[in-house]
Amino acid sequence: MNEATPRKPFHRLLLTGAGGGLGTMLRERIKPWADIVRLSDVRVIAPAGPGEEVMLCDLADRDAVLSLLDGVDAVLHFGGVSVEEEIDHIVQANIVGLHHLYEAVHKKGIKRVIYASSSHVVGYYPTTQVIDAGAPLRPDCIYGVSKCFGEALSRYYYDRFGIETVCLRIGSSFEEPRNARMMVTFLAHDDLVELVRCALFTPKVGHTITFGVSDNKTRWWDNRLAAHLGYAPQRSSSEFAERFPASSVRPAADDIAATYQGGPFVLAGPIYKD
Amino acid sequence: MNEATPRKPFHRLLLTGAGGGLGTMLRERIKPWADIVRLSDVRVIAPAGPGEEVMLCDLADRDAVLSLLDGVDAVLHFGGVSVEEEIDHIVQANIVGLHHLYEAVHKKGIKRVIYASSSHVVGYYPTTQVIDAGAPLRPDCIYGVSKCFGEALSRYYYDRFGIETVCLRIGSSFEEPRNARMMVTFLAHDDLVELVRCALFTPKVGHTITFGVSDNKTRWWDNRLAAHLGYAPQRSSSEFAERFPASSVRPAADDIAATYQGGPFVLAGPIYKD
Amino acid sequence: MNEATPRKPFHRLLLTGAGGGLGTMLRERIKPWADIVRLSDVRVIAPAGPGEEVMLCDLADRDAVLSLLDGVDAVLHFGGVSVEEEIDHIVQANIVGLHHLYEAVHKKGIKRVIYASSSHVVGYYPTTQVIDAGAPLRPDCIYGVSKCFGEALSRYYYDRFGIETVCLRIGSSFEEPRNARMMVTFLAHDDLVELVRCALFTPKVGHTITFGVSDNKTRWWDNRLAAHLGYAPQRSSSEFAERFPASSVRPAADDIAATYQGGPFVLAGPIYKD
Amino acid sequence: MNEATPRKPFHRLLLTGAGGGLGTMLRERIKPWADIVRLSDVRVIAPAGPGEEVMLCDLADRDAVLSLLDGVDAVLHFGGVSVEEEIDHIVQANIVGLHHLYEAVHKKGIKRVIYASSSHVVGYYPTTQVIDAGAPLRPDCIYGVSKCFGEALSRYYYDRFGIETVCLRIGSSFEEPRNARMMVTFLAHDDLVELVRCALFTPKVGHTITFGVSDNKTRWWDNRLAAHLGYAPQRSSSEFAERFPASSVRPAADDIAATYQGGPFVLAGPIYKD
Amino acid sequence: MNEATPRKPFHRLLLTGAGGGLGTMLRERIKPWADIVRLSDVRVIAPAGPGEEVMLCDLADRDAVLSLLDGVDAVLHFGGVSVEEEIDHIVQANIVGLHHLYEAVHKKGIKRVIYASSSHVVGYYPTTQVIDAGAPLRPDCIYGVSKCFGEALSRYYYDRFGIETVCLRIGSSFEEPRNARMMVTFLAHDDLVELVRCALFTPKVGHTITFGVSDNKTRWWDNRLAAHLGYAPQRSSSEFAERFPASSVRPAADDIAATYQGGPFVLAGPIYKD
Amino acid sequence: MNEATPRKPFHRLLLTGAGGGLGTMLRERIKPWADIVRLSDVRVIAPAGPGEEVMLCDLADRDAVLSLLDGVDAVLHFGGVSVEEEIDHIVQANIVGLHHLYEAVHKKGIKRVIYASSSHVVGYYPTTQVIDAGAPLRPDCIYGVSKCFGEALSRYYYDRFGIETVCLRIGSSFEEPRNARMMVTFLAHDDLVELVRCALFTPKVGHTITFGVSDNKTRWWDNRLAAHLGYAPQRSSSEFAERFPASSVRPAADDIAATYQGGPFVLAGPIYKD
User: Any idea where the NAD-dependent epimerase/dehydratase domain is (chains A, B, C, D, E, F) (predicted)?
Assistant: First the structure.
C-alpha cells in the first residue's frame, strides 16, 4: 500500500487486545476505516493480512507501549484483563499498562481513544433501579474497580491535555445472550461495531461515558447523556426471547446474582492470592 | 388437574376485582400464566371454568381475606373502589381492605403483588407538565388519595418484609379512547396485559411505580424510572386519531378538566354524605 | 372577653389533641396568638381557663367535628393516633377523622391548617442518607402510612379548594433527647412553638412540607425547600451532648434501629389484632 | 368565503415573516387549518390567493402591528431578524417589534402565539453535552440573545395574562441538510409543519419551550419536557447520510465551529457598526 | 494623584447610575478600592471629589459610552431604568445602552463587569417556592424582562470573549425594609457593598448569577450555586422585626402581591403608551 | 495497661502514615479515643509512648499489612503517597498498598476505615463552580486519579462486605493557609480532628464521601450530602484574612492555577520517568 496516498478515513488505527473475543471480531469489522490496522496483544494472534500490522506487546512494558503507539492516529483499547483475577494481574494490565498507554498517546500527539470500560463499574446497583452515566460509581469486583481507575485516568488526560476518550461501558457482548441476565445486558456484535464507529467518527466527543447495550426491552441504563454520539442500536435481545423466557427465571428471594446489575460478578471477587 | 405437577409458571394466581371491567378482561388473558387462577369479587361473577376458582370476598372482612390468600403464589389486586365515592366506601375497600390484603400476604408468605394504583394520584399536575414516578403526589380526588395510601402501604411492606409490589398507575384502560383526553391517557387492553406480565415475571422488582399507558403520541408521563420492567407498549391511541382529532378539541380558557391531567376527576369530589 | 373587639392576630384558633404531650405544651404557648383558643381532645382535659374553650370530640364523629370547627379561623391539628397501634384505631382517627376535619374546614371556609405529620413518613431511609421534602415517601410503620395519607389529603384540599396546609414532619419533640437517636431528631419545645408560629403567620404557605427539628449537629433532613417559612431553630440537642456522647453508642452491625432514620419504629409494626 | 360559517378549526390565523424561507413554505401548508390565513412581512410578498390576506407591516410600527392583529385567532410569529445583524436591526425587529406584537395580542384578546425562537439561545453549549429545555440559556450571538428576550417576554405575558406561547427552538430547517453540523440540527419542513400543528392544536400549552428537530440519529437536545405537545417527527437527516458521511468530517482540534452546538454562529457576531 | 504609582487594588473603577439611590450610596463606599472612581449618570450628579471623575453619559449614545469606558479597569453597572416604565425608555437604557456598554468593554479590553440585575427576573415564582440561580426565568414586568436580556447578553460576552460578569439579582436594597415583603427581600447597604466587593475581588468569577439579599430569616432564594463568591451577609431584616411583625400581615386569599415573589411589581406593567 | 478492662471507646486504633504532617498531628489528638493507638509508617517515626505501638510497614508488603491489622478495631488510613510522584510509587502505595489494606481489613473482620482521600479527585472543576459529593470525578493529577481508585475500592468493600468507609476529601490541612487559594481550601487541624471524630463515632456511616474544609467564607464544596456525620467546623480561614486579602490576588486571565479548584496541582503532573 502506498502510505502517501491514504484513501480511508484514518491512516493507522491501533486495536489492542486484538486476540480477545471482541478484538477478534473487531479486527475484521474495522478494516474499512483505516489504511492500516495495527493489531496488538500480549499473546500470539493470527498473522497480519493485507492492510494489517501485528505487534505483540505487554502493556506493562513501558518502552514497548511507546513503540506500539508510533504512527497511530487513534486507539481502540480493548486490551487488558477483562474478568476478575488476582490483583497483581489487574494492576499490571489495567492500571500500570493503561497509564503507559496514555503516556504514549500523549507523547505521540494522538487525539482520541476508545476505551473498553465495563458495566461492572456500576454493577452493584440493584436490578430494580435505572441509572444514567452521571450515577456515582458502584463497582462489583476488583476488575470493575480497575475500570473506574481507567475512566478517571482518561478524564484526567482530557482535562489536562485535551485527549478525547469515549468510555464504553460494555454490557455482555457475545454472539447471543447466554443466560437470562444477558437479555438485559446484551450488546450484539453489530451494535458494538456501530458504537465504536460513532465513538471514533463523531467530530467532537470530549470525555464521554456511554453504556454499550443493544435495543433490549428491559433496560437498566439510560443512555441519553451520550445522545451526541448518535448511537442507534439495530439489534435486540428480543431476537432470542424464546430461549430465556421471562417466565422461567424467577429467582429465589435471596439470589444475589439476580439482585444486582452485575449478576454473578458481584460474587466473583475479590480473588486473594492464597 | 394434578396440582402436584404444575406446568405453568405459577401454580395459583389471585385476581381480585375479577368482576370489574379490567378484571373481566384480565380473567381470560392471564390463564396461561397459572395452573389455577383464583377469582375474587365482592359481587357475584361468572362461575369458575377450567383452571379457575371463584371465591366471593368483601375486602373489609379480615378473616375472609386471610382465607382468600391461602395457597396463592402472587396477587393481581384490581379490587376495591375505582371511582370517586363517599369516603366510607373508599375507606373500607381501599384502606382497611388493602391493609387486610397485605396482612394476609405477609402471613401467607406471598412474595409479590401487582397493585392497580391510578394516574389519579398525580391528576392535579397540569396538562402542560411532564412528570416521572419521582414527582411528589398530587391526587385529584379522594379516590386518588386512597391510592396514595396504597402506594405508601405497599412501600412499607417492601421495606419491612421484602414483599415486592409493582404499582400500576393506570391511565384510561378501555377498548378504545372515549374522549379527547383519553388520547393521552389511553392504555389498550393488550398493553395492560403486557404490563401486568412484565410486573409479574421480571425477576426482581422491589417496589416499583410505573405509569400504565400505551405508546400514545402525547405524553404526560415519562416511564424511564421503570425501564427495568421491560414494558414496551405495542398499541397507541393514534389508531383512533380520526375520532378525536386534535383540531376539534380546543377547550375554553377556563376549562378546568382540560387544565389538569386528571381531567373531569378533579371536579368529581369530594363526595360528602349529605 | 368582648369578642367584637379582637386585639390578637386570630380570633379563634382550634388546637386538637390538646391533651397530648405536645398539645398540653402548646396550649400555654399559643395563647398570645388568639382571643380564644378552642381546645379539643377525645379524652377529658383540664378545664378551660381565660381565653379558652374546651370541646371534647371524637374525630371519628362527623357531626361533632363539624360543630368543632364552627367559628374557627385556623386549625392546629395535633389530634389522632401518634404511635403504632392496631389498624382500626389508626383508620378511625387518622384517616376517617382527618377526612371529617378537612370536610369541616372546607364547609366552614377555614383557610389554613397546621398538620402534625411525622418524620415517620420517611423513616425507612437509612441513617446514612440526607433527604429533603421532595424525597419519595418511605414510611416505617402503619402510623407513618396514615400520615402519608394525611399529607396527600391535605395536598388535595389545597389543589381543589385552596385550603393551605403546612405539614410538620416532627422528629422527637420532648423536653430533652431521651436516647442517642434523638440527638439527631430532637425538636425542642421552643422550636416547635416557633415552627408552628411560622407556619401560622407566614402570609402564604400553599401546601408546604417541612421537617420539625432543632438546630442539631447531625442532620438527616435538609429543610431548604421550606425556607420560605422563615423557621430558624434556636435550640440544639448539643445542649445535651454529654448525656449521649457519640463515642458511647456504636451499635452492632445488625442493629436495625440504628440503620434507619425511623429508629425503633421500624420494628414497631404492623400490629395485627391477634 | 362566507365568514359567518367557518368550517375550519380556526377562522383567521396570522403568519408573520410570510416572505421568509420558512414563511413561504408554511404559507402553503397551514391553509387547511383556517378559513383565512393573514400573511405579513416587511417586504413585498406574493399576492393573496383564495383564503389568504396579505398585510405588509413593519413590526417596529406599533399602530400597524395593532391593526395587523385585528380579528386574528392565533399567531404564528416567524417574522423578525433571523441571522446575526447589527444591533439596531435586531432591536427594532426582535425586541421592540416583539413587544408591539404581544401588546397587540393582549389588547385583542388573542390566546395563543407560536413563537419562532431558535436553538441559538443555547448555541454555546458544547457539542459533547446533551441538554433539555431546563438548561440555563447560553446564546451564541446577539440574534440569539434577542431570542432569549423573546422567550422571557412570552413567559411574562403568560404569567401576567394567561396568553399561551410555544417557543420553537428551531434547529436548521431547510429542504435538506447543507453541511455536517446540520445532520444533527436538521428539521425537515414536514416536521416543522407537524410541530407547528402540535403547538397550535394541543388543548393547553401554557408556556412551553420545545426544540425543533427531526428524528436525527445524533441528538444534542432532549425534548422530553415538551412531550405533552405530542410532537413525533417522521423525518430524519439519516435520509441524507451519504452526503455528509461521519467519516469525512473530523475537524481540527481547534475548530471552534465544531466545538459548540451553535456551529459557525458562535463566530458570527457581534456585528458592530464600524 | 500620581497615576504612575497606584496604591489601591484598582486604578480606575467605573460606577454607572452613580446618581441613583444605590449609586449614591456606593459612591462613598467603593473609594478604598480604586485610585480613581469614575462616576457616570444621565442626570447631573454631585461634582467630583478627590479620587473621583464625573462623566455624564446617556447609555443610548454609543460614542459617549465608548469614551466613558476609556481607561477603566472594571465596571459596576448600576445605570439604566430600574422600575417599570414605557417600553421605549427601557429599550434605550437597558437593551441598546447595555449593548453599547458591552461593546465598549470588549473594545477596551476590560475584563470584569458587576451587573445590577434584579430579583424581578424571577418575580413570578410563588412566595411558597424556594429557588436557586438555575431556575428558569419568570420575570414579573417588562423591566424584569430587560434584565433577562442583560443576563443573557453578559453570558454571551463571557462565552464569546471571556469577559467576566457577576449578575446581582438585587432584592430590596434600602436603608431598611419598607413593608412586610421586604422582610424577605431586604438587602442592607452594608451587605450590598460586601457583595459587590466579593464580585469584584474574587479571582475568577466566570459568569456568575447571585441573589442579593441579607441574612433574613425567611428566604425565597438559595444562593449555594454562588458560594464561590464568598459572600456572607452580616445584616438581617430581623433587626426591624418589630416594625413588620409577621402576625400583622395576613393577606387576603386573592392578594396577588403576596402571592408572587415580585410583590406589587407583578401588577406594575406592562405600561403601554396610551 | 490492663487490656482486659478497656475504658476508652476503642481498644486499638490504627493510624497509618503516622509520620506524615497530618499523621504527626493526629497522633497526639486521637489518644483519648483508644486504649492503644497503633502507629505505622514506611519511614522511622518517634518511638511509642504510653498507650502507643509503633509498627513500621511498607503498604506494598502484603504480609506485613496483614500483620499490621491484627487486633485493630478501626483504621485511620493516612498513609501512602500524598503528592504527585512517578506512577510506580503511586501504584505501589496507593493502589497495591490500599488493596492490601482492605484485604487485611476484610480478613481481620474490621468494620470501619477512615480514608484520607483528597479534594484533588475533583480538582479540575473550575473555581467558579460549586459541587457536592455527587458530582462526577475530575481528578487533577495522577495522585488524584489514585484517590479515585481508593474511593471506588472502598465503595466495593462496602457493597460486598459491609465494611464502612468515610472518604475524607481533604482540602489544605496545615497550621494556617499558605496562599490565597488555601483561603478557600483550608482545613484547620482542629477541624480535621473533629471530622475524623465524627467519621469514627457516627453510629452508621455506610460509604460516605465528605469534603474536609473549615468554615471558610468562600466555598467550592457543598457538604450537605454528608450532614449525617454531624461535622460542624469551628475554625475558618477568615482568621487569617489579613495575610491574603482578596484584593491582592487578582490573577492573570490565563492563570491556570487560579482557574481550577486543584490550583497548581493541575500542572504538577503527570510525572514521567524520563
Answer: 14-172
Assigned domain for D66 exists: yes
pLDDT in tens, D78-102: 999 999 999 999 999 999 999 999 9
Q: Which residue of C has its CA nearest to E250?
A: C203
DSSP class per residue in A32-55 = GGEEEEEEEESS--PPP-TTEEEE
Is residue A268 left, alpha or beta, with left meaning phi > 0 and alpha meaning psi from -120 to 50?
A: alpha
CA E156 to each of CA C162, D85, E235: distance values in angstroms, whole numbers, following the listed order: 42, 15, 34
Cell numbers found for residue A128 = 430494580
Min Cα separation F228/chain C (Å) = 5
Which CATH number covers residue A184?
Answer: 3.40.50.720
The CA distance from E221 to the nearest CA of chain F, in Å, is 16
**F5 located within any domain:** no
Residue ranges in chain C modelled with pLDDT below 70: 1-6, 247-251, 253
Condensed to tens digits (0 to 9), the pLDDT of residues D210-257 reads 999 999 999 999 999 999 999 999 999 999 999 988 765 566 767 888
> Span B174-192, mean pLDDT?
96
Instruction: Count how many domains chain F has.
Output: 1
Task: Locate A216 and state its grid cell.
Answer: 433490549
Backbone angles phi, psi at E129, to 5 degrees: -125, 140
> Residue A60 and residue A58: Cα distance in Å, rounded?
5
Element (H, E) at A117: strand A112-118
CB contact under 8 A, B9 and A251: no
CA distances from C143 to B13, B233, C97, C149, E78 (A): 30, 38, 14, 10, 56
Res F248: pLDDT? 56
Q: Is residue D252 part of a domain?
A: yes
Q: CA F247, CA E201: separation in Å to the nearest integer?
A: 5
Q: How far is CA E125 from CA C156, C246, E137, E211, in A?
A: 21, 42, 9, 14
Q: What are chain F's partners, defined as 3 or more CB pairs within 8 angstroms?
A: A, C, E
Give the residue carrying C-alpha cell 389530634: C79
Provide the β-strand partners of residue A56: A41
What is the predicted ipTM? 0.95
Task: Spell out the SS3 assignment of chain D.
Answer: CCCCCCCCCEEEEEEECCCCHHHHHHHHHCHHHEEEEEEEECCCCCCCCCCEEEEECCCCCHHHHHHHCCCCCEEEECCCCCCCCEHHHHHHHHHHHHHHHHHHHHHHCCCEEEEEEEHHHHCCCECCCCEECCCCCCCCCHHHHHHHHHHHHHHHHHHHHCCEEEEEEECECCCCCCCCCHHHHECCHHHHHHHHHHHHHCCCCCEEEEEECCCCCCCCEECHHHHHHCCCCCCCHHHHCCCCCHHHCCCCCCCHHHHECCHHHHHCCCECCC
CA distance B141 to B123: 8
Asked if C130 has any chain E CB less than 8 Å from its own CB, the reply is no
CA–CA separation, A28 vs B138, rounded Å? 56
Question: Domain residues for E237?
Answer: 10-267
Say if A1 falls within a structural domain.
Answer: no
In chain C, at which residue ranges do the beta strands (DSSP E only) sit?
Answer: 10-16, 34-41, 52-56, 74-77, 112-118, 131-132, 164-170, 207-212, 221-222
Beta-carbon separation of A253 and B227 below 8 A: no
* Paired residues of E15 in beta bridges: E39, E76
Phi, then psi, of B14 in degrees rounded to 5: -105, 130
Reference C180, options C101, C242, C270, C125; nearest CA is C242
Q: Residue E256: helix, strand or coil by DSSP? A: helix
On chain E, the residues whose CB falls within 8 A of the CB of D159 are 124, 138, 140, 266
**Secondary element (H or E) of residue B212:** strand B207-212
How many residues in total does chain D contain?
274
Which triple of cell numbers denotes residue F199?
467519621
